[in-house]
């Protein structure tokens, strides 16, 4: 299948490109930035593309003629609060531009990557735990606001124009790749800094608990949803879940693989506020029922697979800043 990915230079693109190419697809990756060295192995074509530029988006779609689009381009929650205007432009206008290009280019299927950031505490009290697909959405960040809008636009383009739009609400994602401006990044840096420094001062409290997922499961979810039988799908956007550890439970898991690693907790007001507004766990019953979603990795399974990969990544000289 001819596939185009937006925002391919980020953490998800790093693993998604390789998985799609391994499955035999013809992949064109696009991003504002040139192909990063960390993605050099992935293969396929690479186009520079600013999703806020409607003409550029239209031209790339005209040239590539994709049948399936994975729309990953986004400014994440923490960075979005530093620059809400940029988050609005990339996430809102960018999604509009890509959906318009899908409509005009007769793209068969569009995959939207939403997030737990669409949720926020309702005025009536805390979110249900676990949080189901259908609750009133009260996001607290510009990232969350634009993800809600992207979900609604996806449903609109599906019913109004027949573009087969589907999507998942991702938990915080963890992998041996550069994260970019997320509030859930503390979880990855518990691994990275434990390996490279033997200690990590987390920007979240020890009792912080949000849904998390290991990247191989996240990429598999995208592949499975994108290939699922349309007649089985009862909705366009699905919660998906894996595990929901407290930060100090992640620390205990890391310590099994990196003995002696120590952790301290110095919450950052803005990012802690964002983390506290998110669900503690997600109910993903609809995804399990409709397209057979099931995660393979639990926390300790992820830890044993991830730590050697982080060691390799650091040996290869990746530069990651913890804050
Ligand atoms: C973020 O922290 O902003 C993202 C997300 C949970 O969507 N990783």
If you had to describe this structure to a student in words, what would you say it looks like?
The protein is of the alpha/beta class. The chain folds into 2 domains: 196 residues, Rossmann fold (3-Layer(aba) Sandwich), CATH 3.40.50.720; 96 residues, UDP-galactose 4-epimerase, domain 1 (Alpha-Beta Complex). Helix content is 43%, strand content 15%. It has 11 helices and 11 strands. The strands form 3 sheets. Strands 3-2-1-4-5-6-10 form a 7-stranded parallel sheet, sandwiched between helices. It has a two-stranded parallel ribbon with strand order 7-9. Strands 8-11 form a two-stranded parallel ribbon. The longest helix is centred in the first third of the chain and has 21 residues. It is globular. The N and C termini lie far apart (39 Å). The mean pLDDT is 95.
Helical content (DSSP H or I, runs of 4+): 40-55%
CATH superfamily of the largest domain: NAD(P)-binding Rossmann-like Domain
Radius of gyration: 19 Å
- Please tally the β strands and state the result: 11
Shape: globular
Helical run tally: 11
Just give the CATH class of the largest domain. Alpha Beta
What is the element string, with H for helices and E for strands? EHEEHEHHEHEEHEEHEHEHHH
Strand proportion, as a percent range, falls in 15-25%
Classification by helices and strands: alpha/beta
List the helices and strands and how they pair.
Elements: E1 2-6, H1 11-22, E2 26-31, E3 45-48, H2 54-64, E4 68-71, H3 77-82, H4 84-104, E5 109-115, H5 142-161, E6 164-170, E7 172-174, H6 185-196, E8 199-202, E9 212-214, H7 215-227, E10 237-239, H8 247-257, E11 262-265, H9 269-277, H10 285-291, H11 299-315
Parallel strand pairs: 1-2, 1-4, 2-3, 4-5, 5-6, 6-10, 7-9, 8-11
Helix pairs in contact: 1-7, 2-4, 4-5, 6-8, 6-11, 8-11
Bound molecules: 2-amino-3-ketobutyric acid (AKB).
2-amino-3-ketobutyric acid binds at residues 76-77, 115-117, 143, 170, 172-173, 182-184.
């Amino acid at each position: 299948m001819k596939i185009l990915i937006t925002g391919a230079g980020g953490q998800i693109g790093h693993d998604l490109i390789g998985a799609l190419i391994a499955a035999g697809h013809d992949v064109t990756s696009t991003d504002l930035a040139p192909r990063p060295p960390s993605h050099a192995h992935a293969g396929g074509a690479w186009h520079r593309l600013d999703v806020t530029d409607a003409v550029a988006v239209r031209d790339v779609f005209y040239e590539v003629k994709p049948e399936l689009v994975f729309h990953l381009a986004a400014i994440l929650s923490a960075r979005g609060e530093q620059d809400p205007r940029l988050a609005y432009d990339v996430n809102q206008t960018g999604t509009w531009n890509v959906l318009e290009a899908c409509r005009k280019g007769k793209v068969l299927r569009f995959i939207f990557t939403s997030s737990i950031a669409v949720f926020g505490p309702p005025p009536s009290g805390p979110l249900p735990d676990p949080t189901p697909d259908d609750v009133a959405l009260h996001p607290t960040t510009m990232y969350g606001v634009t993800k809600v809008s992207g979900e609604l636009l996806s449903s609109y383009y599906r019913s109004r124009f027949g573009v087969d739009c589907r999507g998942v609400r991702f938990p915080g994602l963890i992998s041996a790749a550069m994260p970019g401006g997320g509030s859930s990044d503390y979880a990855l840096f518990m691994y990275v800094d434990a390996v490279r420094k033997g200690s990590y001062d987390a920007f979240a409290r020890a009792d912080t608990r949000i849904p998390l997922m290991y990247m191989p499961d996240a990429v598999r979810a995208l592949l499975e949803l994108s290939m699922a039988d349309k007649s089985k799908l009862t909705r366009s956007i699905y919660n998906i879940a894996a595990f929901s550890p407290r930060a100090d439970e992640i620390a205990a898991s890391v310590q099994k693989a990196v003995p002696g690693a120590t952790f301290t907790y110095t919450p950052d007001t803005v990012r802690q506020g964002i983390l506290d507004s998110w669900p503690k766990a997600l109910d993903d019953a609809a995804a399990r029922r409709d397209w057979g979603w099931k995660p393979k990795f639990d926390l300790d399974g992820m830890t044993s697979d991830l730590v050697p990969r982080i060691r390799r990544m650091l040996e290869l000289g990746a530069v990651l800043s913890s804050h």
